[in-house]
């Protein structure tokens, strides 16, 4: 019997075989500094649920467990529907209710942490723990990218390979949102469709922000949804630059790949 032909790579890849492209993707913003919908609670922090069909991946848990659970309920998402949890980094505005949330997950659900996270806390033993050092595929078309974000701090971003290009989700982007974009492009040389999450630019000057906006354009980023710690000034500058390709998101937002 002839050996099966390996599947064709979807994009011309410089670094890794990129598996399958996903055609179904829904991102629900559960927690953010701003509220996008009546009935949702806002607060400094970030969390979203990435639904790729067969897996529901929770990315961060925000800063206040009460608000997190209330917002999750507003979306009608039961905790036991979550198959994987990815924590971007160990800061308190992304990890609230760490034990409370994880204790509600089904046995064998997977927990993805960036390296050095575990000095912060011990995860419950019923979960399958995966520590990511730099880059790995966590499901077909779903990748974790880890970069150093400070002293003893590593941050993990989520990369989703969709038919429209890469979607990158950031927590606080402490390593630098451009550094994350650069690393993502090195690993998966695909056009960038959307970058969503905290860009951590709230302490940057207008000039510094302009340089970052220009870099986004150089990378050919098609759409952006900066939120959480991006800061109002940076949001305005991105909005001016990206116009109708800028998405104002907040707790209660649902974005679907269409
Ligand atoms: Zn942080
Ligand atoms: Zn943050």
Helices, by number, come to: 5
The percent range for helix content is 10-25%
Strand content: 25-35%
Can you tell me the number of structural domains? 1
Mean pLDDT: 90
Q: What gyration radius follows from the Cα positions, in whole Å?
A: 18 Å
The CATH topology, please? Metallo-beta-lactamase, Chain A
Structural class: alpha/beta
CATH class assignment = Alpha Beta
Task: Name the hetero compounds present.
Answer: zinc ion
What is the string of helix and strand elements? EEEHEHEEEEEEHEHEHE
Q: Unreliable runs, pLDDT <50, ≥5 residues? A: 1-18
Corresponding CATH superfamily: Ribonuclease Z/Hydroxyacylglutathione hydrolase-like
Arrangement of strands in the largest sheet: 6-5-4-3-2-1-13
CATH architecture: 4-Layer Sandwich
Q: Distance between termini? A: 40 Å
Q: What is the overall shape?
A: globular
Q: Give the tally of β-strands.
A: 13
- Summarize the biggest pleated sheet: 7 strands, mixed
List the SSEs and their pairings:
Blueprint: E1 26-31, E2 47-51, E3 56-59, H1 65-74, E4 84-86, H2 98-103, E5 110-114, E6 128-132, E7 135-139, E8 142-150, E9 153-162, E10 165-170, H3 177-187, E11 192-198, H4 206-218, E12 223-227, H5 232-242, E13 254-256
Parallel strand pairs: 3-4, 4-5, 5-6, 10-11, 11-12
Antiparallel strand pairs: 1-2, 1-13, 2-3, 7-8, 8-9, 9-10
Helix pairs in contact: 4-5
Bound molecules: zinc ion (2 copies).
Residues 46, 91, 93-94, 171-172, 198, 228-229 line the site of one zinc ion (ZN).
């Amino acid at each position: 019997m002839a050996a099966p032909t390996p599947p064709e790579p979807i994009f011309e890849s410089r670094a890794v075989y990129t598996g399958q492209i996903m055609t179904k993707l829904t991102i629900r913003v559960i927690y953010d500094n701003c509220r996008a919908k009546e009935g949702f609670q806002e607060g400094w922090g970030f969390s979203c649920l990435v639904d790729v069909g067969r897996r529901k991946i929770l990315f961060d848990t925000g800063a206040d467990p009460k608000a997190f659970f209330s917002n999750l309920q507003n979306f009608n998402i039961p905790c036991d529907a979550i198959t994987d949890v990815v924590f971007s980094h160990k800061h308190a505005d992304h990890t609230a209710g760490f034990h409370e949330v994880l204790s509600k997950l089904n046995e064998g659900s997977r927990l993805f942490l960036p390296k050095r996270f575990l000095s912060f806390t011990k995860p419950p033993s019923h979960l399958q723990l995966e520590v990511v050092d730099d880059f790995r595929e966590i499901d077909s078309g779903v990748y974790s990218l880890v970069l150093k974000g400070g002293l003893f701090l590593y941050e993990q971003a989520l990369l989703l390979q969709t038919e429209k290009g890469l979607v990158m989700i950031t927590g606080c982007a402490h390593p630098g949102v451009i550094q994350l974009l650069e690393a993502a492009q090195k690993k998966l040389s695909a056009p960038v469709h959307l970058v969503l999450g905290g860009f951590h630019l709230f302490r940057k000057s207008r000039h510094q922000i302009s340089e970052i906006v220009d870099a986004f354009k150089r990378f050919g980023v098609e759409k952006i949804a900066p939120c959480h710690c991006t800061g109002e000034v940076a949001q305005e500058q991105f909005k001016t630059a990206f116009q109708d390709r800028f998405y104002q998101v907040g707790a209660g937002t649902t974005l679907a790949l269409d």
